Amino acid sequence: GAVVSQHPSRVICKSGTSVKIECRSLDFQATTMFWYRQFPKQSLMLMATSNEGSKATYEQGVEKDKFLINHASLTLSTLTVTSAHPEDSSFYICSALGLRIDTGELFFGEGSRLTVL
Amino acid sequence: TQLLEQSPQFLSIQEGENLTVYCNSSSVFSSLQWYRQEPGEGPVLLVTVVTGGEVKKLKRLTFQFGDARKDSSLHITAAQPGDTGLYLCAGILTGGGNKLTFGTGTQLKVEL
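Predict the joint structure of the above. Result:
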């Protein structure tokens, strides 16, 4: 089956620094990828839709200058958390849209846990 | 306000018991999916339902999509400790493109 890989799986950084998380589709091309944020024991909240070659579409309430998304190729999307603060600590998950667009079949990465000290 | 409300939010049962998780909305979905997620990992797709009234079975799991495509249920028969996890329903709104909206989640714990 289709595989989506995220890197790093865990990252700890100091407050004020920026952190980049990568999301790669390993065996298929993904024109659309999604970034989610998940707090402990809660559901996934969509942050933004990443489209290859164009600007990301952010959900209401998500700061686009804070969470920079780049989808420069058909297999890679990156999320950069800029000037991270402790409240940005969370589990970030990406997904890539598979071939079954009509059913919205998504393939999820393993997630990246960000801890900001 | 969450588009997809799941109930119950938490469920702790003994091995061998049956359970049903509900996923409800006032909106119509073109398709609906169920995922299971373990701590520190991404969600894993269990099933996709697209037709109103559709019933799908996956071993001890039975999934149903409501006739009006506004709700869904997941029934687990003879639960096992390996079923423990966070169960998430997620749907694509009719006319919503390919954006997946997740439910509020149900945390299931199955004890020996």
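Chain A touches chain B through 29 residues (CB under 8 Å).
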